[in-house]
Amino acid sequence: MRISHLTSIIACFIMLVFFINPSNAISVTNASTIHVWEIQEITLNAEQSYDNYYTDVTCWVELTGPDFAKRIYGFWDGENRFVVRLVATAPGTWQWTSSSNQPDDGGLNGHSGSFTAIAWSEAELQANPNRHGFIRATSNGHALQYADGTPFFLVGDTWLAGTTWRLPYRGVAGSEDYVPAPGIGFEDAVMYRKGQGFNSVSMIACFPNWEADCNPSTYADANGIFLRNAWEKFDYYVADGKLTAKNMRDEYGNKPFHMSKEHADVADFDDIIPAYFQSLDKKMAYLSDQGFVPLLETVRRDICPSWKAYFDFNESYARYVQYLISRYGACNFIFSGIHLDWIPKEYSLTADEFNEALTYHLKKYGPLPFGQPYTTLINNSTLIQFGHSDHCPWLTMQSVGNKPRDHSVAVKLDSIFNLTPPYPAINFEPYYTGWNHEINMPNGERPPANSDRDIYFSRAQMYGSVLSGGLSGHVHGTSAYDITTTGEPDGMRNYIWDALKFRSANYMQHLAAFILSEGERYQNLQPGAHDIHPQKAPGSPERGLDGWSYMMRTADKTLALLYFENKAVLPKLSGFEPKTSYSFQWYNPQTGEWHEPISLTSDKKGILTVPSLPENANSTMTDWAAKIKQVD
After folding, report:
1. How many CA atoms lie within 13 A of 208 on its CB side?
2. How confident is the model at residue 492 (pLDDT cuts 50, 70, 90)?
């Protein structure tokens, strides 16, 4: 057995070796000193043989340290090898002891070890924000922060198929001056987005039943069980003029599960292939090294009808969920229990069925041991589909998204903000630039890809979502969420190297700069749209993204952030302190430019009148943001 400290899950941390004698007793030959929040990897080699290592063996270590005592589960990594990944959450001495559900296996049980964790230096913290610790909810429950209290505002992009060969990991560091082009690799894309201020990407861990084969992208088996509702592989037609599905293997051709021997074209969800996830290890490690906090999702909902029809769904799905948590739970990430972008009767289980399975997992394995947010990408809102708190005890972060992509998002986020207890919230699937699809058409409008109107819609959802209560951050998206790449003709979705260059991504860094302009004070903002008069311009459609105004303000009324959509009416603002001096400052969401502050004084009722737009405002400007601060 050995314990190793990896700098990148697989290859980047310093090796720390423990030796075992033939009787499996451990003798520590060197003192182990590591940093907090660095992954430690304990490898256990089973002495006995098992018919199915994935289903038959559950192993873990009991980890204790300063203010910490929890069970950390391991995962099967091929052959007879089991791995437990863990981190030290505070400086001090840490100890662990191994156990399993196979009490007679000397390779898995009764081993122990210890190590000492030390803090990072200030310079080391500056080099990688993940060294501040794993993200979690702020004390008021409405936003996110690192473990040491440093604010974390998520600036994400949507790479749902980024786990597959479509963005291949090459093992070569990305260049800071890389420009997306055909042949793009995973590291290239990460560095390009990092240069634009991004700190997260959203990815689905695997797509088990998807394959470019002789079957349509959406089809059912002879029993009427739908096996997939996959993204189409354009220009690859099968019977009846239908397109087949995209290939979703890893860079080496591995699938995540072996295929079932009993059910045609169905993955055997009780027979996992570790090699596929070893490829994903490298990508998760690279993201961590670059300071990213990814959203990692289990599977897309269309995989699950066959999973439930042919397997013990609660047990099998819980095992897979735990496999991902065991494998990546020592990473700084947000975990999504299911990609529930749509809930059609044929191509998905219901929200209640997923809730049952995820609650079953929680009861059997417990919560994420290191406290990262647990959420779900959703078709409208997690509150609508799952409820809150005791109704879905596994959920610790609420979300909105996908349908519809219009003003109704603001209403859903406002409802989430007022929940008790409060949870962080975010819009995971807003308007996607360049995507030619009916659900991506505010008020029925479909602008040309990367046009001014197209990127305006994206920008409107950025600011509108955050300033309706989504203080966790925002996830940007484009038509290339599926990573359309080499060998696939352009269809409804653009090539990834083209979509990465859409101008909408440039505005995400300006959003973050705006929200963080007063440091962590944004975390205390509260919805204030009811104090905007008028909040909606006459005739502005709820199903569109024009004419609305947004405001969030601190309870002490000393700070407010505002956003005005295209065609919004400059309003009066109530609810401020009466007869009080304020500074009003316009912000250009296209350039990140602040204009000169304007002095305002509220009247005896606490009403402020929004001033005229800057005289030097660009005539092409359609939307504006602003900040109001009380003057001491």
Report:
1. 28
2. confident
Counting every residue written for the chain, the total comes to: 632
Helix axes 452-466, 506-515, angle to 10 degrees: 30
| Beta-carbon count within 10 A of 49 CB | 9
Topology (CATH) of 523-630: Immunoglobulin-like (2.60.40)
Per-residue pLDDT reduced to its tens digit, 390-417: 999 999 999 999 988 999 999 999 999 9
Name the maximum alpha-carbon separation found in the chain.
Answer: 84
Question: Which DSSP category does 367 fall into?
Answer: S
DSSP state letter for 202: E
User: Which band of pLDDT confidence, cut at 50, 70 and 90, is reported for residue 615?
Assistant: confident
Residues of each domain in the chain carrying CATH 2.60.40.10: 2-119
* CA 571, 577, 578, 583 torsion-angle sign: negative
Give every CB contact of residue 195 below 8 A, 6+ residues apart in sequence: 176
Asked whether 180 and 188 are in contact (CB, 8 A), the reply is yes
- Range 577-583, long-range pairs (CB < 8 A, 24+ positions): 577/602, 577/606, 577/630, 578/602, 578/603, 578/604, 578/605, 578/606, 579/603, 579/604, 580/606, 580/630, 580/631, 581/630, 581/631, 582/608, 582/628, 582/629, 582/630, 582/631, 583/628, 583/629, 583/630, 583/631
Which contiguous run of DSSP H or E holds residue 352?
helix 351-365
Going by the DSSP 8-state scheme, the letter that residue 51 receives in this structure is S
500-516 CB burial, b ≥16 within 10 A, e <16: bbbebbbbbebbbebbe
The rounded distance, in Å, linking the Cα atoms of 466 and 144 is: 13
Q: In which residue are the tokens 């749209």 written?
A: 529
CATH of 153-208+253-403+429-463+475-510, one of 3.40.30, 3.10.590, 3.20.20, 2.60.40: 3.20.20
Phi, psi of 524 (to 5 degrees): -100, 10
pTM of the model: 0.95
pLDDT tens per residue across span 544-561: 999 999 999 999 999 999
Distance CA(488)–CA(194), nearest Å, equals 27
Q: What span, in angstroms and rounded, lies between the C-alpha atoms of 109 and 52?
A: 19
Cα 269 → chain centroid: 24
The segment(s) of the chain belonging to CATH 3.20.20 are: 153-208+253-403+429-463+475-510
DSSP helix, strand, coil percent of the chain (3-state; round to 5): 25, 25, 50
DSSP class of residue 597 equals P
Q: Which fold has domain 2-119?
A: Immunoglobulin-like (2.60.40)
Q: Are 250 and 164 in contact (CB under 8 A)?
A: yes
> Is the backbone of residue 443 left (phi > 0), alpha (psi -120 to 50) or beta?
left
CA-nearest of 164, 170, 197, 167 to 180 is: 167
Q: What is the DSSP letter of 141?
A: S
Tokens linked to 412: 């859903």
Which residues does residue 71 pair with via DSSP β-bridges, in sequence order? Answer: 62
